[in-house]
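Example 309, ligand nicotinamide-adenine-dinucleotide.
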Amino acid sequence: MAVVGLGDVSVVHLAAIEKLGATLVGVCDSRGDYRALLDEVRPDVVHICTPHDQHVPVALAALERGVHVLMEKPVAHTLEEADRLVAAVKDHPALKVGVCLQNRYNLTSQALFEFLRSGEMGAVRGGSASVLWHRDAAYYAARRWRGQRRRSGGGVLINQAIHTLDLLQWLLGEVTSVRGHAGRYGGVAGGGSVDVEDTAHMVLDHADGTRSVFFATTTNAVDSPVTIEIVTERATLLVRGDLTVTYTDGRAETIAELAPDGGGRAYWGASHELLIADFYRSLDDPAPFWIGPQEALKAQHLIDEIYHH
Ligand SMILES: NC(=O)c1ccc[n+]([C@@H]2O[C@H](COP(=O)([O-])OP(=O)(O)OC[C@H]3O[C@@H](n4cnc5c(N)ncnc54)[C@H](O)[C@@H]3O)[C@@H](O)[C@H]2O)c1
């Protein structure tokens, strides 16, 4: 394995590589040349942990060299850039490309998915989700790209809430219509100027007629647990850390989430390692990895709709 981009999130990737018993053959940050790294060490897989505008260039260089790609979210800072990767993936069908939407591997997400698919909850009446987090001046000052739309593509939606938006569309089905707004409502706590949005709301209509509503902000006083609530004919399923299922007859059950074990920040969850392990396993499998660029772009298309329409 090789890792390109040695900032905050790389710590989680490096820890997973070691824990899974894979061999790290090279790393490269912005003072190095990722093309030279790929040529010299010829890894099987490159983990891409760079800022959003530096995902696709590294991925294309890897595919050209026959290297599998595991990239951080989002696919790219713009849809045009993402489409360059989608085209390249078609030209390299033997290579795997995975995107780190690791929250699909949360125990609570997997349990929700199974409950809804099993039919035992009855028809879905609707869903809602919230991401109420705190990102202050220090967060943006530490890495300027995070507050620069031309490099990040945006703020709370594309950077933080994309995971939860992806879960909503994965759990409740394809979104046929999205309306909402994103803006700079709160500013940056502690000062400093950024040109990315800090708050957004959305109403999503899913293909089967279900509606979900969504709210995200980085202006909250603290990092509150993400919530996802799905109401069905027979139960209310609420994720807030753990998953609590409360049945209409009064019974309740709880499915506990895995606790992060030191490598990551609590709000990133513990699921990176699960996704990375699954990606490595998929290398022996002829089918594409299930969270490839096109799958990951479903949530990004919704975000783009809010940004540009
Ligand atoms: N999945 C998650 O939960 C999660 C959590 C945090 C961050 N992320 C994502 O991870 C990515 C990185 O975020 P971060 O917070 O670690 O950023 P960061 O700024 O801390 O780290 C990025 C690193 O990439 C390096 N870099 C920039 N351009 C490069 C290039 N061309 N070649 C090599 N290195 C280059 C920078 O010098 C920096 O060290 C982003 O896409 C972010 O959205 C995902």
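Summary: The pocket of nicotinamide-adenine-dinucleotide is lined by residues 4-9, 28-30, 34, 49-52, 54, 72-73, 100, 102, 143, 159, 268 (CB under 6 Å).
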